[in-house]
Amino acid sequence: MRFDVISLFPAMFDALTAQGITSRALQRGLWSLRCWNPRDFARDAYRTIDDRPYGGGPGMVMMGDPLAAALGAIEADRGDRTRGPVLHLSPRGRPLTHARVTELAALPAVTLLASRYEAVDQRFIDLHVDEEIAVGDFVVSGGELPAMMLMDAVVRLLPGALNDARSAQEDSFATGLLDCPHYTRPELFEGRPVPEVLLSGHHARIARWRREQALAVTRARRPELLASLRLAGGLDAVDERFLAALEADAEIRDLR
Question: In this predicted structure, what is the pLDDT of residue 125?
């Protein structure tokens, strides 16, 4: 998979290429990255890429011309290969979800606009951006960190990126639920033991316990995920009985 990133700070992406899972996946040839600085495509001697907003207001706006020229260079560099979607990392975008990450991981190429300043000229967005994506309901100084979060999420789903493919299959959101708690040695930590079922060696009981823990955590922290999973038919009768028991226990506690 190929990533092309339009960014004023391409060195920031060394964090992905030089460290951890994404670095190993890069060395295995599972993905590639090329960064494009819009200043290299500015038309004046000052390499200007932003200007004051029409109508007044705070901050500066990234100009469309350098961005469009960078995008044209990307398409020329790829030749006849598909350019893939152009994604703008923006707090105005739709929230990034596991489902969307899975879709992106199946593509041969993606172009990411990691913008800066107050905004990007809306005409560039209207003409050239396929989708705006947000990584949360907050604002950061630029699109580089959100772009890296998206890339990391995508790369770890590429076949061969993880040493054990089951890791991605059992992550939070992969099944529509948050992940269950996990434990390791020692068996007793600060007076707290490992749950007995995890020491039993009974794989079916362990699998059921993990499922119930995931249901309980999701119910407590992200009930909207549980509602969506129920609507999609992702809960069986055993799940529903467990959740009903949780509801009954909660009602009893509230009465005390």
Answer: 98
Q: Which of 91, 208, 210, 222 is catalytic?
A: 91
**Alpha-carbon torsion, ordered 234, 239, 241, 242, to 10 deg:** -140
Tally of domains in the chain: 2
Q: 239 lies in which domain range? A: 188-255
Ranges in the chain, pLDDT < 70? 80-81, 256
Tokens matching residue 241: 């009985």
Polymer length of the chain: 256
Same domain flag for 226 and 139? no
Tell me whether residue 118 is one of the annotated catalytic residues: yes
Is 137 annotated to bind a ligand? Reply is yes
Residue 81: the pLDDT is: 65
Catalytic residue, from 75, 78, 85, 118: name it.
Answer: 118
Please indicate, yes or no, whether residues 135 and 251 belong to a single structural domain of this protein.
no
Q: Give SS3 for 77.
A: helix
Query: What is the value of pTM for the model shown?
Result: 0.92
- Report the CATH number that the domain containing residue 139 is assigned in CATH: 3.40.1280.10
- CATH number, domain with residue 228: 1.10.1270.20
Buried b (16+ CB within 10 A) or exposed e, 225-241: bbeebeeeeebeeebee
Residue 136 known to bind ligand: yes
Distance of alpha carbon 239 from alpha carbon 223, whole angstroms? 14
Q: Are residues 148 and 222 in the same domain?
A: no
Alpha helices (H) along the chain: 14-17, 20-27, 64-78, 98-105, 122-128, 144-155, 166-169, 203-221, 223-231, 237-255
Token duo for residue 161: 């990126």
Q: What is the pLDDT of residue 222?
A: 95
Q: Residue 86 pairs with which residues in a beta bridge?
A: 111
